Structure prediction request, 170 residues.
Amino acid sequence: MAAGPTYEKIQTTTLTSNQNDIEFTSIPATYTDLIIVFTGSSTTTGSATNGMRCRLNSDTGSNYSQTSLSGNGSSATSARDSSATFFEGEIGQTSNTSLSINIFQIMNYSNTTTFKTILIRTSIPNNTVQAHAALYRSTSAITSVTLSRDFGTNQLKSGSTATLYGIKAA
Prediction:
């Protein structure tokens, strides 16, 4: 017997103008995990990258930890932050010819007895790839996710898209 699809699209947002953030709210607790796929860039002119923040439940406390690995084809780096106020991926600037892709996998998001584990993968063609293992130190169920530009004047560029998927139980 063939199994049905495990990803179920909950919501897609495509920006029709430059904006500071994309927010998913009222996330139902009917799935095991969440996947968010962001494709886009920032409004900053250049060929480098900008940070892209991810916040859960509008929580601005120091409840986010992240270990990151990054490579650009000629060098690799790692970083660790154990008391951040958000998770961070990267987005390309306007001179990058290909769109950035960030995939956030939030496991056990509706469980109210454990902290949440998040895997983040970032790809900016001809620039960098990153992998992040993250922890959200809260037992609250995840009911909202906000993706936003990093500090400064850059914004998420018009045409950027974010899609929220729920993963069905086996």
